[in-house]
Design goal:
Layout (H helix, E strand, L loop, with lengths): L6 E9 L5 H9 L17 E7 L2 E7 L9 H16 L2 E7 L6 H9 L7 E6 L6 H11 L7 E4 L8 H11 L17 H16 L9 E8 L6 E10 L2 H8 L4 H18 L2 E10 L7 H7 L10
Parallel strand pairs: 1-3, 1-4, 4-5, 5-6, 8-9
Antiparallel strand pairs: 2-3, 7-8
Helix pairs in contact: 6-8
The protein binds guanosine-5'-triphosphate and magnesium ion (MG).
Magnesium ion binds next to helix 1.
Length: 305
């Protein structure tokens, strides 16, 4: 369906860890492009995913949650999120409405002061919030920033998502599509594999472990692609004891992570997958620029000592 004026532009999800930014992205584009977990700091890089509407195209940008960074990895993560604020046409600030606003939220709202882009406030997880609590929250949120709209949604149930998309489209400038009609995401297949393995690690491990692990794809063998994809990955941990946890008693944990990741990847690539996982200890990978470069976490413009 054609309409008179076509729109195209970037809309980014910004907010604290665990607010539901990646879940929102997946719900809106209708595909699992970003991994999701109940642990904070799940997303480590920005991820683009496009959706086409009769009125035009929105390129959504998922970003890492904004937090106080303690490692170089986290500095890169937070910088990636903050940098998008200056580059996009509209910002969707995502707030977990089932929590009380705190210091971290003040910090994130403070970042919005100097940006030109209009900001839509997304009050997410309303499926967890009694109706009576929502109105006072909206009133309070009006004092955080001069939002162009405040939209309560549930990324989980889909409630309010249509209205959110309308509001974002309304802020997107006129222009021709930025990506071809069939473009879904800029996430390379290799990082999709690594992220799928990391999602299962996050799901099955606790405490410090999720933050201390990284996954690389050492070999992506697609020689026999129509029949089978052969994938060889390494899981990095920081301590010998963490290696034990990831492997589990009799290798049970690693097997479970491998099975679940393989099933997801077989569904995604629509082919049989052979997945080999090994675990390596690298004490300082989170502060090691070379490892971070290998992992593909982009360097950002901030200068570090
Ligand atoms: N009940 C409920 N849970 C939600 C909703 N949206 C997200 N979640 C859950 O919240 C948790 C965090 O979701 P993510 O999408 O990973 O959050 P994020 O903002 O991307 O987190 P980071 O990548 O760490 O910044 C997951 O357990 C989701 O299932 C929602 O609308 N309702
Ligand atoms: Mg995320």
């Amino acid at each position: 369906m054609e309409t008179d004026t076509r729109r195209a532009g970037y809309a980014s999800f910004i907010g604290r860890p665990n607010a539901g930014k990646s879940t929102l992205l997946n719900t809106i584009v209708g595909a699992k492009v970003a991994i999701v977990s109940d642990k904070p700091q799940t997303t480590r890089q920005r991820i683009l995913a496009a959706k086409n509407y009769p009125e035009g195209q929105i390129v959504f940008v998922d970003t890492p949650g904004i937090h106080r960074p303690l490692h170089r990895l986290n500095v890169r993560m937070v910088d990636a999120a903050v940098e998008t604020l200056r580059e996009v046409d509209v910002v969707a600030l995502v707030f977990d409405a089932s929590t009380r606003p705190g210091r971290g939220d003040e910090y994130v709202s403070g970042l919005l002061k100097d940006i030109r882009a209009p900001v839509v406030l997304v009050l997410n997880k309303i499926d967890l919030v009694p109706k009576a609590r929502l109105l006072p929250l909206i009133e309070r949120a009006r004092t955080w920033h001069d939002f162009v709209a405040i939209v309560p949604v549930s990324a989980l149930t889909g409630d309010g998502i249509d209205r959110l998309e309308r509001e974002l489209l309304g802020q997107i400038p006129e222009g021709e599509a930025l990506y071809p009609e069939d473009f879904l995401t800029d996430q390379p297949e290799r990082s999709l594999v690594a992220e799928t393995v990391r999602e299962k690690l996050l799901r099955h491990t606790r405490a410090e472990l999720p933050f201390s692990t990284a996954v690389t794809v050492d070999t992506f063998d697609e020689e026999d692609r129509g029949r089978i994809l052969r994938l060889y990955c390494t899981i990095y941990v920081e301590q010998e004891s963490q290696k034990g946890i990831v492997i589990g008693r009799g290798g049970e944990m690693l097997k479970r992570i491998g099975t679940e990741a393989r099933q997801d990847l077989e569904a995604f690539f629509e082919t049989k997958v052979f997945l080999d996982l090994r675990v390596k200890v690298n004490a300082d990978w989170r502060d090691n620029d070379r490892v971070l470069d290998d992992l593909g976490v982009p360097r950002t413009s901030r200068r570090r000592k």
